[in-house]
Amino acid sequence: MSRTSQDTPSKPRQAYEIPNAKAYSKNSWNGALIEQIEPQSPAAREGLEAGMRILYVNGEELRDMITWSWEASDYEVYLEGIAYENTPDEFEFECTLTRELGEDWGITFDGAVFDGMRICRNNCVFCFMKMLPKDMRRSLYLRDDDYRLSFLQGNFVTLTNITDEDIDRIVSLALSPLNVSLHAISPDVRAQLMGKNAQRGLDVLNKLLNEQIEVHAQIVLVPHMNDGEELLKTLEYIESQPMITSLGIVPLGYTKHQSRFSDSYTAHPDEAAAVIDTVRPFQERARKAYGRTKYQLADEFYLAAQTDPPAAEYYDGYPQFDDGIGMVRTYLDEALETIRDTEAVKKLEKAAATLHAQESQLVIVSGCAAKSVVERFLQQSPLRDVSYVLAVKNTFFGGNVNVTGLLTAADVLPACERLQPNTYLILPQLMFNTQNMTLDNLSHSEVLSKLESYNIHACIALTTPRGILQALSTIFCLC
């Protein structure tokens, strides 16, 4: 599970939540379920409806969106085995869809894979899903390790459950780039970190790299396991692999719901700085040789070391943005742009004047990791005297969990209860999933209703500089 260190502009990737996903099995496949049909579309004209399943596209088994995208890329597509989900086989039918230039087929499927998600078979010592408390949403315990979701959505996979048939498909369809969890290069260290299947993942990775499949790699850095000399070995391996175009290094994260870990780099400025120093020569050589940094550290290292992250150009277009890499830099850059924007400053001045006249304050909720970054913007803005950051300690997960995206209502609501009445409060949108639910299963409306009972004026928004400005413009009707 990866959550961001603070609210930041999101990348245009959609993630599917599949609460009832099953382990991959060819026997479980019964076609692709249609979730929605666009009116007047080619699919609607041929009588397709939501609730139907499609078994074959152009004679190929429709097991995932990769097959659909490949087979349905032309102006005509032949569909077979179409029936409602629970209809006997004899009611199946077939049809041919045709479309005009620029026209969409008009079909929305229920997810990205249709034959059951491939589940992780590793035993990683740092697996965050194994450190979750009991009785959370079922989907949060799902440990996917599906190469198709790596290609389609950017999920990180270990490649340990890849078959030779899968390798052939990846190569033949050029499914690139893939996001791959590498962690270490030495077989004994990999086995210690990931379990008995670790070598298969490395063997598959080498085959794919030899076939010119691009890879974005990741290391979860665990103190005294894959750092130090092992980290150097892994960096040297990556330096020898031009098809690994980026490497993200993230620190171990752990909760209180386990007994193995009690420390990580985020609590030790000197150790975080040492990791930065270890990686820097590789970054410099890569920029000199290829014009890109390639080796990128998670924001937590820079926050822990109490130093600014590199400039934006050193993030190579942010290929690992969703893994918490480069978010602080984008926040700082957006803050600078906002306070240099005359119109934005005027609106912030109006908001500050209104808050002052009402003898009220603006409070921005964040995780503890993001506090200094958000404060930096507020102190540079006209809001400096009428606002502050409420950094909420995460007791729900405990451990070293301190990021905004893992805040729960169980921690946020008690912290807000102590605020002065008539406070204006901005809750981070990152607290909520795409169904508007917190991790501890409270909805938007339930959280806002509770805050209203405290006589707090609350809204949910991005807590980026532009997000704060937009929220204030709505609250105070700023022109």
Structure description:
By secondary structure, the chain is α/β, with parallel strands linked by helices. It folds into three domains: about 80 residues, Pdz3 Domain, CATH 2.30.42.10; about 200 residues, pyruvate-formate lyase- activating enzyme, CATH 3.80.30; about 140 residues. Helix content is about 35%, strand content about 15%. Helix 7 runs parallel beside helix 8, helix 10 packs parallel to helix 12 and helix 11 crosses helix 15.
Low-confidence stretches: 1-27
- CATH C-level name of the largest domain: Alpha Beta
Name given to the CATH homologous superfamily of the largest domain: pyruvate-formate lyase- activating enzyme
CA-atom Rg in angstroms? 24 Å
Structural class: alpha/beta
Classify the beta-strand content into a percent band.
15-25%
What is the fold-level CATH name, i.e. the topology of the largest domain? pyruvate-formate lyase- activating enzyme
- Could you say how many structural domains there are in total? 3
Through-space gap between termini: 40 Å
